[in-house]
């Protein structure tokens, strides 16, 4: 697991029954089992990336509200993690390998 994936899994382990939407820059991503749901229910293209070739799907931030409404309409609970700092701020305060801080804002 990469350092950038650790915050996702820390929260996901507490909300296994929820589709966790994770903010990454100007995109929202779903990983592993949630990615399967996004692929099936939203017809998002599945990719494999990161350490261990994690399954993921995603959408630009402009499309997230519609996607969340579709998931809810299909009976899923959805949670959203937002970035609390920009990548530039994280690098300025923590160096080049700094992880961007995020927090759970909606369930």
Structure description:
With 107 residues, this protein is of the alpha+beta class. It contains 4 helices and 6 strands, in the order αββαββαβαβ. The protein has helices at 6-12, 32-42, 64-73, 87-94; strands at residues 18-24, 27-31, 47-49, 54-60, 77-83, 102-106. The protein has a 6-stranded mixed β-sheet, sandwiched between helices. It is globular. The two termini are 24 Å apart. The model has no long low-confidence stretch (mean pLDDT 83).
Could you provide a short overview of the structure?
34% of the residues lie in helices and 32% in strands. The chain has 107 residues and is α+β, with helices and mostly antiparallel strands.
Topology:
Layout: H1 6-12, E1 18-24, E2 27-31, H2 32-42, E3 47-49, E4 54-60, H3 64-73, E5 77-83, H4 87-94, E6 102-106
Parallel strand pairs: 1-5
Antiparallel strand pairs: 1-2, 2-4, 3-4, 5-6
- The secondary-structure class comes to alpha+beta
Cα distance spanning the termini = 24 Å
- Widest sheet: strand order? 3-4-2-1-5-6
Mean pLDDT: 83
**Quick one: biggest sheet?**
6 strands, mixed
What are its keywords?
single chain; 107 residues; alpha+beta; 6-stranded mixed β-sheet; 4 helices; 6 strands; 34% helix
């Amino acid at each position: 697991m990469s350092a950038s994936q650790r915050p996702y899994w820390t929260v996901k382990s507490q909300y296994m029954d929820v589709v966790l939407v994770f903010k990454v820059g100007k995109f929202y991503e779903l990983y592993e089992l949630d990615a399967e749901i996004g692929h099936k229910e939203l017809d998002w293209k599945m990719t494999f990336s990161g350490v261990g070739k994690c399954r993921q799907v995603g959408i630009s931030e402009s499309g997230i509200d519609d996607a969340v409404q579709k998931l809810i309409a299909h009976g899923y609970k959805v949670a959203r993690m937002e970035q609390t700092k920009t990548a530039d701020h994280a690098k300025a305060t923590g160096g080049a390998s700094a992880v961007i801080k995020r927090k759970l804002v909606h369930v």
